[in-house]
Amino acid sequence: MSVTALVGAQWGDEGKGKIIDILASKANVVVRAQGGNNAGHTVVADGVTYKLRLIPSGILYDGTTCVIGNGVVVNPKALIGEMNEIKASGKSVDRLKIDARAHIVLPYHIELDGLSEKLRGGSDIGTTKRGIGPCYMDKAERSGIRMCDFIRPEVFREKLKSNLVLKNKILTDVYGGEPLDFDEIYNEYVGYAAALAPHVCDASVLVYDAIKAGKNVLFEGAQGALLDIDVGTYPFVTSSHPTAGGFCIGAGIGPTLIDECLGVCKSYTTRVGKGPFPTELDDEIGDLIRNKGGEYGTVTGRARRCGWLDLVILRFAARVNGLTSLAVNKLDTLMGIGKLKVCVGYEKGGSVIRDFPVDISELADCKPIYVELDGWDEDISKVKRYEDLPLSTKNYIDFIEENVGVKVAMVGVGPSREQNLLK
Ligand code: GDP
Ligand code: IMO
Ligand code: MG
Question: N or C: lower Cβ tally within 10 Å for the chain?
Fold first, then answer.
């Protein structure tokens, strides 16, 4: 495996958790480098379903070191809750390392996320309300509290005190909300800091040394390319870089250290939250996909918007990430739907658009150009070898490969580790 970066190639929830868990069996180190507990990665291992938000999906293997890099925003309460869940399932979290530079999500970030969404009214982003955006705002504004501050009680006390003065003014005077109490937050969070302190390190050094020692390192992407704050469907994006470049920034390593970039997608498209979605199906086929695919958010439980596969999006993901291969999940969900539509380009004002538009107001006017492919009626969830898939399923995969220009390395026919076929 050497050094592999794994990214979501659509709007998130592509089934990254499952693929990371599979690849993690051969990894020495698994690294998260962006986002926070807005992510929800489902791993089905030995019949048990794990929902991981902050902890890298490699945690289920005894020998794997799991790293939360400097680019991640860490909600300490959520992280400790997740560590306790893992421990309760009989696994150890001793191998979890957290970079000292990672920023801390505090209660005021969560309050501000909710209040700013409310103030936006109908123009809200549809965030997960986990305080992710406000925490990255503080990071960019240079008032954030980092893990290295957090684990030193006196430093944490000072920084929290001064931040809370301004945050309480914003909460009350701007949003008409309630102020937060310093003692309450400090007394609760100082305990979390003590629990996390043994895990804190310089993760950039750890990851670099592992790569230099020839270890297998897997970078675990959260979210997806279209949610990237720079190249995604702004403003309907998250506040970090879920594209391959985000690993360099968020893990403190250089681009020449990464060998491969695997994009994970579904055999159709989904999106949670607001924003234009050209191939969205607002009909019974969309409902069918949602129900068959269990398309409800791991973090918020929201129904995911569903639509046909969009190859304009996958070509965009191939470009912005430099994808070297693709994993296509959830082929089993499309079983029995009949003819399958695949979007190969957009039509706007009589012109054909092949590249994903920069401006979402343009995207909103784009009409998908579809090619219709044969579907399959067979239950493929028990198929063990790629070559044993129905011809129409293999044709669907070939069509993706040809149109995206990236080889498909694996396909998913179900949620468990075993339901992943190598091509
Ligand atoms: P992530 O955020 O990219 O890790 O994806 P999520 O875990 O949020 O959502 C993907 C969902 O699809 C999870 O419930 C997975 O267990 C499930 N899943 C992954 N791959 C497959 C597959 O090939 N077939 C089916 N039916 N479900 C899958
Ligand atoms: P995983 O890792 C799908 C979406 C939210 C919202 C937008 C901004 O499970 O694929 P935020 O709370 O980040 O400020 O919300 O981004 N979003 C995701 N959608 N999967 C995710 O993560 C997401 N993380 C954020 O729904 O539209
Ligand atoms: Mg998810």
Answer: N
